[in-house]
């Protein structure tokens, strides 16, 4: 009996299934069947319900908390390895634990490095992700890493707004490189916010470096968690004479009352991707899908072709 099997299959973790279905559709395949058996104590076990022997499998899973998402991905990598998959590509639109990329004080872990080693040990032969919190995380892996940039998605949208007097802004000193990259492409000015924290997620003071008078400001960051930084930055810029303030953030973590902070802030609009499922809808939040970007790069990886044309900047 002769039959056709695709050279690659796409599977999803529980919390990333909606995005994975979009990616699979753009890729041109049906999302693969995987089931999860749950024990009464919370333990779970994934099972591929179709053969993956000799194939490349793409496992789509954003590893945002809870840790169950990361654990699902690790178990699926191990299951695929034991089922004789030829290549195991972990597609991680949002790479969780990335803020733990260094020892910033004594006696703390480097969580991103630990996650990298766990993925490799579990069987991942390639990593595909987008807008890592810190670029050096790529070096934590001994396997190939395809680090994509959401600028491919955001820049066409920014241009479609047809704004005049655009100024790119970074909400903190660490993100200035990202803001300068956008500004170079858009031929715009740049301003930077300088903030001080007394503890995580709590801003003590914020100052603005640069002039925003009469400008349409676009804040750019890799993620938005509590929303406090962006809300504060938008308020400061409007006080300093900005015409409007928008924000583009790749990963919409939006924990706690972040959505309410955004709605009550001076932000005109928050533009995010669907790397993380949006917890709550808002008229101020626009979601742009990253599914087509990942599907295109997955095709390129499968066909061993260059992915350089997917990098706008």
From TrEMBL:
Give the superkingdom in one word.
Bacteria
State the EC number(s).
2.7.6.1
Q: Which stretches are annotated as coiled coil?
A: none
Q: Which residues form the Ribose-phosphate pyrophosphokinase N-terminal domain?
A: 9-123
The cross-references to CDD domains, in alphabetical order and at most eight, read: PRTases_typeI (cd06223)
What are the annotated GO cellular component locations? cytoplasm; ribose phosphate diphosphokinase complex
Write down the Gene3D superfamilies for this protein, in alphabetical order.
3.40.50.2020
- The top EC class, named as a word, is transferase
Q: Which terms are listed as keywords in the entry? A: ATP-binding, Cytoplasm, Kinase, Magnesium, Metal-binding, Nucleotide biosynthesis, Nucleotide-binding, Transferase
Alphabetized NCBIfam families for the sequence: PRK01259.1, ribP_PPkin
Q: Any idea what this protein is called?
A: ribose-phosphate diphosphokinase
Q: Which organism is it from?
A: Paenimyroides viscosum
Organism lineage: Bacteria, Pseudomonadati, Bacteroidota, Flavobacteriia, Flavobacteriales
């Amino acid at each position: 009996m002769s039959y056709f099997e695709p050279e690659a299959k796409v599977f999803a973790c529980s919390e990333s299934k909606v995005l994975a279905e979009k990616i699979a559709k753009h890729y041109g395949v049906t999302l693969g069947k995987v089931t999860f058996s749950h024990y009464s104590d919370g333990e779970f076990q994934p099972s591929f319900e179709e053969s993956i022997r000799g194939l490349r499998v793409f496992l789509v899973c954003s590893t945002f908390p809870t840790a169950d998402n990361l654990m699902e991905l690790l178990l699926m990598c191990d299951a695929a390895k034991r089922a004789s998959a030829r290549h195991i590509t972990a597609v991680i639109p949002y790479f969780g634990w990335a803020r733990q990329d260094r020892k910033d004080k004594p006696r703390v872990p480097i969580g991103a490095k630990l996650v990298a080693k766990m993925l490799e040990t579990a069987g991942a032969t390639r990593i595909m992700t987008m807008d890592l919190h810190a670029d050096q995380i790529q070096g934590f892996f001994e396997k190939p890493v395809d680090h994509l940039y959401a600028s491919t998605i955001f820049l066409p949208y920014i241009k479609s707004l047809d704004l005049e007097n655009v100024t790119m802004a970074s909400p903190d000193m660490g993100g200035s490189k990202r803001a300068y990259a956008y500004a170079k492409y858009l031929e715009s000015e740049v301003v930077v916010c300088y903030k001080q924290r007394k503890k995580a997620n709590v801003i003590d003071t914020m100052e603005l470096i640069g002039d925003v008078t009469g400008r349409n400001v676009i804040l750019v960051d890799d993620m938005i968690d509590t929303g406090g930084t962006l809300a504060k930055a938008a308020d400061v810029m409007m006080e300093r004479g900005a015409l409007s303030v928008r924000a583009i953030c790749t990963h919409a973590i939006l924990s706690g009352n972040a959505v309410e902070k955004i709605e009550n802030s001076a932000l005109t609009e928050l533009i995010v991707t669907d790397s993380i499922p949006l917890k709550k809808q808002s008229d101020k939040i626009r979601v742009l899908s990253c599914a087509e970007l990942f599907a295109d790069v997955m095709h390129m990886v499968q066909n061993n072709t260059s992915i350089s044309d997917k990098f706008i900047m």
